[in-house]
Amino acid sequence: MEQARKGDWVQVRQTVLTPEGRAPQVPDDTKKTPLLLWVKGFAQSDGKIGDDITVETMTGRKVTGELCAIDPRYVHDFGDFVPEFLKVDVQLKKLMKGEVAR
Amino acid sequence: MTLDMSYEAVMGRKNEIMKKAIGIDYTGFESGGISFDYERMMKEAGYSLEEIQDIQGETGVGNTPLLEMKNITALARKYAPKGKGARIFVKDEAANPSGSFKARRAATAVYHAKKHGYKGVIAATSGNYGAAVASQAAMHGLECIIIQECYDSRMIGQPEILEKQRACEAYGAEVVQLTVGPELFYTFLCLLEETGYFNASLYTPFGIAGVETLGYEIAQQFRDRIGSDPDAVVVTNAGGGNLTGTARGLIKAKSEGTRIIGASVDLSGLHMASDHDFNRKSFTTGHTGFGIPFATWPDRADVPRNAARPLRYMDRYLLVKQGEVFYMTEALAVLEGLERGPAGNTSLTAAFVLAQEMDMDQTIVVQETEYTGAGKHPMPQISFAKQNGVEVLFGDPDSEVPGKNIVFPDDPGSIKLREFDLEKARRSYIRNSVAKCGVTGEVSAEDVSFLAAETKTDEGFVRSVLANL
Hints:
Chain B: Keywords: Lyase, Pyridoxal phosphate. The complex is a heterodimer of chains A (about 100) and B (about 475). Chain A is an alpha+beta fold and about 100 residues long.
């Protein structure tokens, strides 16, 4: 979905500081990048991804930024299967076979 | 009149914004030199242990179970010399409403905010504290904003931090997410000024006093169950509040013989403010990137005087490796039937080896666990590390290089402790105090005595360090 309607739950992005405006103590690799901010809220107008729109956040603040997601999903999960853990589990069970303390 | 919102202008208004947002006049505790009256600050700006027990009890925080790790103890004894292998216990702090001991800190902070008429609370944290503040704010009907350092410049975020965003939003909070950098503090100040909300800092006197109940409960539960005080309590150390509060609680319970041992994951070599390094660490807390700078200069926090002062209480500071902590997280699950988040198991890892040095009839408490789930679990942490080019292998944990590889011990017997030189930390703290407070002439007798208390040493030690500055 590329088009948000007024009232949709969306995420916007703002540039807080440009690379030139970064704090002096920031390491060089970070200094090459802007400080970006993301926040979610209810769209106050219709808009397309990439448009500047205003949202009303959960605490009632009005924030304007570039529309970057509509009904943003949580992308984290349990990751790919990690076979190394299985190896650890088998090793531990073997070490303690017949010796469980309870 | 419109306020100047430029970086310099907002940072220039820092003191004024902070004063309104915390409501504590810290100047009343200052001496004008290096020292300040720490105990009076804790007493006057905090709450008594009894008050905190009531405050936490109202929202179901605290009184978490103390569990004996019989199987992990049995495993440790396989590697211990004859007669060694202390009993390991775990304080299951994951049983708190928001899934970690941070509920104790948040309970007092949010209670205080409500009592003083604030409409909402703001906390700058990417960790469990965010979920704790959001949960408490929900219980007290206050608004809540959590600010996270979350993404690198490609908008790729640590799975653990993304999970914390989800948890905070589940509790009805607004989450403001930023890319890497210390300028998060600027955004934090802007939001405090815009909203007039309370600064639910991790480091206020009442935030730290909130953890005292944890130390106190450990002593009480031990006396009830074992009939003695624990010989050692191992605390995962980051900003120092967990260690400070727990130690103070043990002291309030008159458990003075208990040794307080800090443990952190060794992330040396990774720069905490680096866009490149940000996603190459597999621990977002409990690591040396917070533990060492905060121990050697606590007043770098978001309050004028940090109530978390770990060098006052720490008897020993141990470092473990990422791969070792993941290994012990598996051991906790498959040997003890407890699936808990990785960061809290830093102290469990240290305890596993420490037990092998201590006598069989001695006792160790691992004083926290934390919840686990999507993102906040060893599996997504390790698969994320692999995606970011970090190699995962088995071998000697000492060959682990943070950001390059994660080395799972090839056998539990190869998990080791690395001693962090506390004398070095104490010297560094004294040097920082003199430099940051701008002392040029002779250090006053009052300040020498303060520095001795701050470093758990004596005036002779302080004077010898000062003489060599």
